[in-house]
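Subject: LemA family protein

B.,
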Amino acid sequence: MKRFLLYFAGLVIMLSQTSCGYNSMVQKDQAVKAQWANVQNSYQRRSDLIPNLVNTVKGAANFEKSTLTEVIEARAKATSVQVNSDQLTPENIKKFQEAQSQVSAGLGRLLAVSENYPDLKANANFQELQAQIEGTENRINVERQKFNTVTNDYNGYIKSFPNNLFAGMFGFAEKPYFEADASAQKAPTVQF
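Prediction pasted inline below.
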């Protein structure tokens, strides 16, 4: 009985000192959700720029239609893959990331092919849109890094003692990170 009372007293003291960490878990969970919204916002900005870029490129005579079609289809697929902040699972993040990677690849090919069209490269609208897309790609990278930072903070918090004792009880589970695209693992081949 004495042992039980000591254990109970210890538990009460621990809970009173840590407040179970519940409020901090809620704050960190909300930080992950807010940062996920920032990631989606950056991707949405890129998606909003694509129709303007496509319309500008369509004006170039004999521009490769298959490249434009590929970008349009990738954008449509990417916008159809929506992940709510309450559905952040490794599988959902992977689907989202794969769809967005197809858009990135299509835009990369579109911008590379545009090098063959001097009139298009000289077009002020095209130059402005290209600069905005490049800036948006940088924003996406920054927001993904911030997402991984706040996710790391959250995951570390819920997995550390004594928070790990209460996290599962209150429904706080580990959240996934953004990972590098599989294509990034292979160095590009450069030929001169």
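The CA atoms of residues 26 and 172 lie 9 Å apart.

T.
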